[in-house]
From TrEMBL:
This is Uncharacterized protein.
Amino acid sequence: MTVSIRFYIFADDGLQRISQRVMEGLVHGSDAMPQFAGTKQKVANVIVDLEEGKPARITRADGSFLHFDAAGKVHESLINSGFEAMDTFDALERSKRIKSKVVALSPKLNREKWERDNRWTLSKQDLDLISDDIWKRNRAATPTVQQAKGVAPKPPPVTFEAKEAIREIQTHICGIDSKMEFLTEPALKGFAFEARRLAKDDLDNAVWLGIAEAADRRREILARYRTGSGVWYASIDVIRWDASRRTGRTDSFVHERCNSKKKAEEAARRLLAENAKYFSAESSVEARVVCDLEWADAASGDDDE
């Protein structure tokens, strides 16, 4: 049996749907909802069983809060909430294992506070509104459910032929990157010059021009590491591994922007110490220091503000 995940936001002006694309963009920091800037909104994650492609029943509906910042983003608040969730859960579990006549109430109270700040329970009326939308039941007393909008543009559809072409091209791009990875700064300078010459001889071939720009970027990254100048980022990942430790999922991510490599290294050591409490047999805490040219790749779409 297949399932479908639906997202809804209970806004002041009525129930609104959130598409999978917009929700993923909000979670990863690549999309925003300025209309909710500076507010705390109730959201429902609904799992629906499908039979022959049609909704059959709601199997689960969880309520949570999204805390929108001044720009209408929720990424930072989700990170903070994730850290607090692990912190309060671990503290509560540790308190349960301590055998003592005096029971510490703080772990339980802190966990309950986190639950109140981040979770809510859907009422029958809430579920009825969602059910009416899923099964397209038109009731006179029920307002029309609107589609919540983000600001990120909707990508065009990618055809099968396009996907196959991209897949094949990716193998060649990986080869180009690997060739440049081991070149020195002087070698990259000559490499970029030759790539531009080839582009000019081929009617300003865009592919060769792109390769030249990639070489320039790689050379600048090496220069940043050599001099330590420019903008740098210190980041910490908390990675939760599966039982085999072959695959992991980044549960939390925190970073700090710095004005030099040295300051970023100092920040990374401090952040690593602050977040070492999240280390366990199932979770690793990893620190990274990268320059701003590498930041987009290292952050995997995380906002740098």
